[in-house]
Amino acid sequence: MAQDSILQFPYQFVPKEIYEPAFQDSVYLHLDFLAPIPGPFIVSKHFEVKLVRPDKGTMRMADEYDWITVILVACFLILTFAKHNYSRRMGQLLKACFVPRAVSHLYRDGNPFNEQVTLALGTIYLLSSSLFIYVVLSHFNLLPTGLVNNKWLYSAILASNAIYWFLKAMVNKTLAHIFKTHEATGNYLLNNLLFNLTAGIFFLLILPFVVYTGSGLILEIALVASVMIIIYKVFRGILIGLSISRFPLFYLFLYVSMLEVAPLLILAKFFHSGI
Hints:
The chain is mainly alpha-helical.
């Protein structure tokens, strides 16, 4: 009869004492039967069951390779287009970023603000810099998980980045109208444009190594390089202001403090509190 019961009922009920302890856990789900349990479970001596889930960071990065790859491929295609069609002009823009005297030669071949190569490289900057910010926030576990899809988080960062630079340009033009410093403001905006275009290419080249290797060292090197680029950009902007004899020092101090230093201090405070 006992054998027949076993054949009819695959779950054989037995006392708890025959089970040897395996792992301890704080979640108790008492099961008094022997049966195959589907999924990655850990069973303890009290028949405790715990579903083993991957780390949240691992799950996030594993799910986001697809759309990150699409963004990187799109940026490389745009860069290839710009390199193939505007190779000479692209070289002039990059050279002017590091060689101040080369800036005066940019207007000989046209207005750098109204060219297709500027639009292409500017698009790369917005896409790659926003992705870099997203990866940094993800690395320091500062992204909200489970509330909204990460693709939408990246979209929000991208939109915020674009709005920030648009408002920054509008503030520059407004202050130029107030202080009558149109020449200095134009040079300053050109300086920002050159550094943004160069930074976009830098982010694009470093991001594949950061994303697909998961190396924290590479990310930290990229962060240090980004900070150095920003500091050099601010220093170049100060030199541009000082080179104009009619440039008000109050305007220079106001601009550097409010639009360059203050955002960096806010970001530093944000990361310090998050870490």
